[in-house]
Design brief:
The chain has 618 residues and is of the alpha/beta class. Helix content is 42%, strand content 18%.
């Protein structure tokens, strides 16, 4: 797993722009802990930071491929192509020669062999850039679900690109300007495809290619969700999903570095872990390594909240014992979660503020700890989106609303009725954002794009729309967060449930089958029935834990008081100081984590404005 950056300018010779390319590449140093490389020639400059996973000795990038003794193409690649061995064999049969064992060389050789349609043949999580020396063209490609990020900025005569905005901001021609559209994206919990926070930046759309040449920019689509009839009955559906998962996990176990699973003790990660453990023992006679994250005294003092019904650690330990895994409990102290430097690094990792606070910090610290043992971790993300695991999918007031159902659910909590993370901002500022109108407009546009089957009942049609919205407007936020917080340490997350074959199959599986026993994720429970302890199979979904230590809430209040006492704080013109004072008079409930989101957002927003020298153009 790596970081990529580059600059193409058809009006300038970039061969002397090494210092700028170096700065762009250095900005992604966390994504590549094992090496770095630059390639500059004529109109193109490509940079790469490498976390080695496959072919540790021979996989340095940028990687060049020759034809007839001359350089034909150069590639920088972030991610994994899981079917690269099959593609390599096919390409060798067609006369292609290889000098490395990497999937990266397979990608560029596939491009040279099959041209623009080559992306359809790739299976995995990836974002890469190919400079076609023969045609003077840059080709940017992003995986089907957008697991791996890829940002770009158009120039008068070319383009800048990078795995994260910080790489583009390292270029002297890019300023950290954020307008109203960017702020709406920042505060939104429903992502607009392609929209970035910083002005003039975009993301390559999932399942798309972008070709930049002297004649302009061409966008191509190589994958999108489609609707087709589901003809399998329940037993056939369960068996198909079971077979797919076993094949997917097997392919994602390929690595030349230590590999593990992140095990929460929930259904999703436990199923992945059980399948991985079976394959690892069968193929290598080795135990899988597993990790769970918790906080000091969390289990002993745990209190249920509106979405968390049980602590993870006991269930994770039970699964680990059931599978005989090499298990590690990661325990985080309140002092660690409150460390200023760590919290700053979390903002920098994501290039912006977040409402999630200690959830982000604990994810960041978890990735740091896992990386001391393993370079690759299989995780259970995306199961809720494809199997139907969110509570708002079962609430009529959310399902039937004329907006994103999770936005309705967010507003049901008393602490979030003004919008997640927005309560401390001024009325004038919020009026300019008009989040209600923003959600209304983007919802109508998104819902109209959902593909449907003929003859669907009203309920099936609505749930298919919600499935589409969840995959295209909700999931991207989680994928981006997971990538940034893990890759800050060069830890590669692999997501078996994000395999496009599984996503396509379950998108077209009727809701009545997905909930055949009246529970969420009924099909996945059926698949895992003979793999996991009964307690885990029946455990109610609990999201990533949040600290319940009152010291953390007191720390947030103290920092907020110090912020508003600082006349130089850049956030002050955008705050509702009456709301701030009311918050400071009320110490709050340590277990009311949604109310903390408002403090977290205000504090991080100020940090972001300061550290990035952001210009708000509103």
């Amino acid at each position: 797993m790596c970081g990529i950056a580059g600059w193409v300018d058809f009006g300038h010779d970039l061969s002397h722009e090494r210092p700028v390319l170096q700065a762009m590449t250095d900005a992604l140093a966390g994504r590549g802990t094992d090496g770095q490389g630059l390639w500059l020639s004529g109109s193109a400059a490509l940079g790469h930071t490498r976390t080695a996973v496959i072919d540790l000795a021979g996989g340095a990038q940028p990687l060049t491929v020759e034809e007839d003794g001359r350089t034909a193409a150069v590639i920088v690649h972030n991610g994994e192509v899981y079917n690269f061995k099959q593609l390599r064999s096919e390409l060798q049969a067609r006369g292609r020669r290889f000098r490395t064992r990497t999937d990266t060389e397979v990608v560029v050789q596939a491009y040279l062999e099959w041209g623009p349609s080559f992306a359809e043949r790739l299976e995995g999580i990836f974002a890469f850039a190919i400079w076609d020396v023969r045609r003077d063209e840059l080709v940017l490609v992003r995986d089907r679900l957008g697991v791996k990020p890829l940002f770009y900025t158009r120039l008068a005569d070319g383009v800048l690109f990078g795995s994260e905005p910080k790489a583009l901001l390292a270029h002297p021609g890019v300023r950290p300007v954020v307008d109203g559209e960017g702020l709406r994206e920042l505060f939104s919990v429903a992502k607009q495809p392609g929209q970035a926070v910083f002005r003039d930046m975009r993301e390559v759309l999932p399942g798309h290619t972008l070709t930049i040449g002297r004649d302009g920019v061409r966008e191509g689509t190589y994958w999108t969700l489609t609707a087709r009839p589901h003809t399998d009955d329940l037993p056939e559906t369960v068996e198909t999903v079971r077979s797919l998962l076993h094949d997917i996990v097997l392919r994602e176990l390929v690595a030349d570095v230590p590999l593990c699973t992140a095990l929460s003790g929930g259904l999703d990660s436990s199923t992945v872990t059980a399948i991985a453990a079976g394959w690892r023992w069968k193929l290598d006679g080795e135990r899988i390594r597993t990790f769970v994250t918790t906080f000091d005294d969390y289990v002993e003092k745990f209190q249920r909240d509106d979405v968390r019904f049980s602590p993870d650690e006991p269930y994770a330990v039970e699964v680990a014992q059931h599978l005989s895994s090499d298990h590690v409990n990661i325990r985080l102290s309140p002092d660690t979660l409150m460390d200023r430097e760590t919290r700053l690094k979390v903002v920098l990792a994501q290039d912006g503020p977040s409402t999630l606070g200690d959830m982000d910090t604990s994810n960041y610290l978890t990735a740091r700890e896992i990386k001391t043992h393993s370079t690759v971790a299989l995780v259970g993300e995306v199961a809720d989106e494809i199997f139907g695991g969110y509570n708002w999918m079962f609430k009529p007031e959310c399902v039937n609303a004329d907006t994103f159902p999770w936005v309705v659910n967010e507003g049901l909590h008393p602490s979030n009725r003004g919008g997640q993370g927005r309560d401390l901002f001024g009325i004038g500022f919020l009026d300019k954002l008009d989040m209600r109108g923003h959600y209304a407009d983007t919802y109508r546009e998104a819902a109209a794009q959902a593909p449907h089957q003929d003859g669907e009942s009203p309920e099936e049609s609505r749930m298919r729309t919600i499935g589409f919205l969840t995959l295209t407007r909700w999931l991207p936020m989680l994928l981006d967060r997971g990538d940034r917080l893990s890759m800050a340490h060069g830890l590669e997350l692999r997501l078996p449930y994000a395999d496009h074959r599984l996503v396509e199959y379950l998108y077209n599986t009727p809701w009545s089958l997905k909930t055949f026993d009246g529970q969420e994720k009924s099909i996945l429970r059926a698949v895992a029935r003979d793999l996991l302890p009964a307690s885990v199979l029946e455990r109610k979904k609990s999201p990533w834990p949040v600290t319940q230590d009152p010291a953390y809430t007191r720390m947030l209040h103290a920092e907020l008081a110090a912020l508003v006492a600082d006349d130089s704080a850049p956030i002050l013109p955008y705050l509702n100081l009456d709301a701030v004072r009311r918050t400071l008079r009320n110490p709050g409930d340590a277990h009311d984590w949604p109310s903390r989101m408002h403090l977290e957002m205000a504090l991080q927003f100020n940090t972001w404005l300061t550290r990035y020298n952001v210009e708000l153009a509103i």
